[in-house]
Amino acid sequence: MIVAILCYAALCALSPVGACRKCHGFGFKVSQNRRGRIVRGRNCRRCRGYGQRVRAGRRIYNVATRLHREGNR
């Protein structure tokens, strides 16, 4: 269990963003038109078209450092 937490912490430190789970990193919805061709859809609402999301561990780290920084001013 502790090894898994340390590995996730290392992952969050090395790669703080991951691919969006809704659009799979494209940043938009992929759909087909009536002829069957793949066309670009609207921007993804979850990642706002960036295709990336901040990992949960990195978000917790950012909140903790912000609280520490604001508390020590």
UniProtKB/TrEMBL annotation:
Keywords: Signal
Range of residues in the leader sequence: 1-19
UniProt-recorded name of the protein: Uncharacterized protein
